[in-house]
Amino acid sequence: MRRVLLSASSMIDPDAFRTLLGDAVDEPVEIAVAPLGSTERLVEAGSERGDGTGFDAVVVDVDTPVTAEAIDALGDDLEAVVRAAVGVDDVDVAAAADAGVTVTRVPKYCTEEVATHSLSLLFACLRSVTPYDDAVADGRWAWEDGRPVRRVSASTIGLLSFGPIARRAAEQLSGFGAELIAHDPFVDGDRMRERGVEKVKFDALFDRSDHVAVYAPLTESTRGIVDADALSRLSAHSVVVNVGRGPVVDDGALAEALDSGAIKAAGLDVLAEEPPDDDPLVGRDDTVVTPHAAWYSEDAREDLNRSAAADVAAVLAGDVPAGRVDPNADWL
């Protein structure tokens, strides 16, 4: 019998896994569900069997870091760590590879959703939706409460990273007439030009952009890359959107830029600490914050579970899963 541990997460549907694995795996599969959310809980749940056997695969969401210690503690039976998400920034992929454990992710399930959400945040900030809404709720009815608002077609929008989500956002933005530029050291200029986007260096992205949307994954090279210096290159009418990972943006520097009026507003789906605890970027008139929900649609959730279960099935069958993470990838 094969054994699979699922995080008790609202993103992960145990019934979908039971159905999909039951159809795809030739031998019986026992599925256990446990509240994870931390490395300690993962280790505890993975060692509670008491019969000398462990789990062949664990399926976790973004709330559960999978460290080298956790991989070691989960035992020799472990074959796969399946991240039910796009990013693997808190999975020790190198340690997993050393232990012979395959790490997988689901890179495409929410491309459409996150791209659309990034534009929703951008336009909410550009069009001063929150200030207008607050003013109307307070009994005011004045267009001046949202000033200043500038025309989208007269702006330059910078994309930090040019992976699948940013590329889809560029497609969606193409009809608005704005100039699009992007910085991504792993994507060549020809590939960007094919999509009507100019490749620029990092500093130029902030020097030239009226607004910047961050799609970058969290790595050692991207942590805190949107810092005070980068933000100082923007203008007082600028909007910063982050749908990548919270720590890519220096939240203290962003709060200071907003406080000083150096930029207009920020639209954030990710924060340095989630959920936030007294975060200076939450509850402001000049920010729109959503709870790491850019990924969500019912369609995306179904795709997520289908793809993650298919990866588990592939590993258990000795095949290469579609979502396998290359431990030698430059972006890790």
Q: What name does CATH use for the topology of the largest domain?
A: Rossmann fold
Name of the level-1 CATH class of the largest domain: Alpha Beta
**DSSP helical segment count:** 12
Average the pLDDT over all residues and give the rounded result. 94
Overall geometry: elongated
Number of domains: 2
Order of helices and strands: EHEHEHEHEHHEHEHEHEHEHEEH
Strand content: 15-25%
Taking the sheet with the most strands, its summary is:
7 strands, parallel
Taking pLDDT < 50 over at least 5 consecutive residues as the criterion, the unreliable ranges are none
**Helix amount:** 25-40%
Strand order of the largest sheet: 8-7-6-9-10-11-12
Q: Radius of gyration, Cα only, in angstroms?
A: 22 Å
Number of strands: 12
| CATH structural architecture of the largest domain | 3-Layer(aba) Sandwich
Q: Can you tell me about this structure?
A:
Residues 54-325 form the D-isomer specific 2-hydroxyacid dehydrogenase catalytic domain. Residues 119-294 form the D-isomer specific 2-hydroxyacid dehydrogenase NAD-binding domain. Helices cover 34% and strands 15% of the residues. It is of the alpha/beta class. It has two domains: 2-109 and 297-316, Rossmann fold (3-Layer(aba) Sandwich), CATH 3.40.50.720; 111-289, 3-Layer(aba) Sandwich (Rossmann fold). The strands form two sheets. It has a seven-stranded parallel beta sheet, with helices on both faces. The longest helix has 19 residues, at 298-316. The model has no long low-confidence stretch (mean pLDDT 94).
